[in-house]
């Protein structure tokens, strides 16, 4: 973060292998540029997205499995 500002945006529900869509990120950058005196983008950086596990009821899966000593703690969506 010493070289600039990290910009993040919202959530898009899509298939894990769906092509990258940058409309949210581009919109967030446009708004940030209107609000802040930002210079040029740092060279060599690329836009990035990551998949997060989400369950249909939006609740995380936390609990033991059939394997002794192995618990699941997943499905926290974008909240972490």
Describe this structure in words.
With 80 residues, the chain is of the alpha+beta class. The chain folds into two domains: 1-49, no CATH class; 53-80, no CATH class. 16% of the residues lie in helices and 10% in strands. It has one helix and two strands, in the order H-E-E. It has a two-stranded antiparallel sheet with strand order 1-2. Strand 1 (61-64) and strand 2 form a beta hairpin. The two termini are 20 Å apart. The mean pLDDT is 84.
Helix-strand blueprint:
Layout: H1 23-35, E1 61-64, E2 71-74
Antiparallel strand pairs: 1-2
What is the average of the pLDDT values? 84
Order of helices and strands: HEE
Question: Any low-confidence stretches, pLDDT <50, length ≥5?
Answer: none
Output the radius of gyration: 18 Å
Could you give a short description of this structure?
The protein contains 1 helix and 2 strands.
Give me some keywords for this one.
80 residues; alpha+beta; 2 domains; two-stranded antiparallel sheet; 1 helix; 2 strands; elongated
């Amino acid at each position: 973060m010493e070289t600039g500002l990290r910009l993040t945006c919202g959530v898009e529900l899509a298939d894990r292998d769906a092509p990258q869509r940058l409309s949210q990120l581009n919109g967030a950058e446009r708004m940030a540029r209107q609000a802040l005196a930002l210079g040029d983008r740092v060279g060599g950086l690329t836009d990035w997205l990551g998949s997060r596990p989400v369950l249909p009821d939006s609740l995380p899966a936390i609990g033991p499995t059939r394997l002794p000593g192995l618990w699941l703690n997943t499905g926290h969506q974008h909240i972490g």
